[in-house]
Amino acid sequence: MRQRRPMDAPEIPIAPMIDCVFLMLVYFMTTSSLEKSEADLPCPVGSAGMALDPLESIDEQQMTISPSGTVLWNGSSFDLLGSSTGYRSLCDRLKTFLNTCRLSGSEPSLRIQPHDDAPYQAVVTFLDAATLAGIEAIHFP
């Protein structure tokens, strides 16, 4: 009779498993980012002695954009889509508003209320005029 050999325990090949783990490590290292990408937004910080109501220090004006693309502001209307004179007069008025706010020591702020049917071009033209005038605080309700 033949003598039986003792059965060897099955072996798991380690080298391919190490290769797979290494490839996964390289993949995750290349796809992850170490620093978060965030926008740097300026945030004014007041001192401990300043307890002002923020609504008192900001001069806010309400603007309405009609379905025809006309900006209505304090009883005045500026046609943004019809001619360039409406755009120029709005820019001049916004610059005057900015200078008045700076002289009074307040921050200028605009709140735009476009009509549901107002053309997008009128809103973009208004934002362009406000940016050209130097007003940074523009809000939508």
Can you walk me through this structure?
The chain has a five-stranded mixed β-sheet with strand order 3-2-1-4-5. The model is unreliable at 51-58 (pLDDT under 50). A hairpin with a 2-residue loop joins strand 2 and strand 3 (76-79). It is 40% helix and 19% strand. The chain has helices spanning 14-31, 54-57, 84-104, 120-133, and strands at residues 58-65, 70-73, 76-79, 107-114, 137-139. It has a domain at 70-139. It contains four helices and five strands; from the N terminus they run ααβββαβαβ. The chain is α/β, with parallel strands linked by helices and 141 residues long. Helix 3 (84-104) crosses helix 4 (120-133).
What is the compact description of this entry?
The protein is α/β, with parallel strands linked by helices and 141 residues long.
User: Largest sheet, order of strands side by side?
Assistant: 3-2-1-4-5
Q: Note the main sheet.
A: 5 strands, mixed
Instruction: Please give the radius of gyration in angstroms.
Output: 32 Å
Number of alpha- plus pi-helical segments? 4
Based on secondary structure, the structural category is: alpha/beta
Return the string of H and E elements: HHEEEHEHE
Share of helical residues: 40-55%
Distance between the termini: 96 Å
Quick one: overall form? Answer: elongated
What's the β-strand tally? 5
Q: Which band does the percent of strand residues land in?
A: 15-25%
Q: What does the oligomeric state look like here?
A: single chain
Family: Belongs to the ExbD/TolR family.
Protein name: Biopolymer transporter ExbD
GO biological process, one term: protein transport
Pfam family, one: ExbD
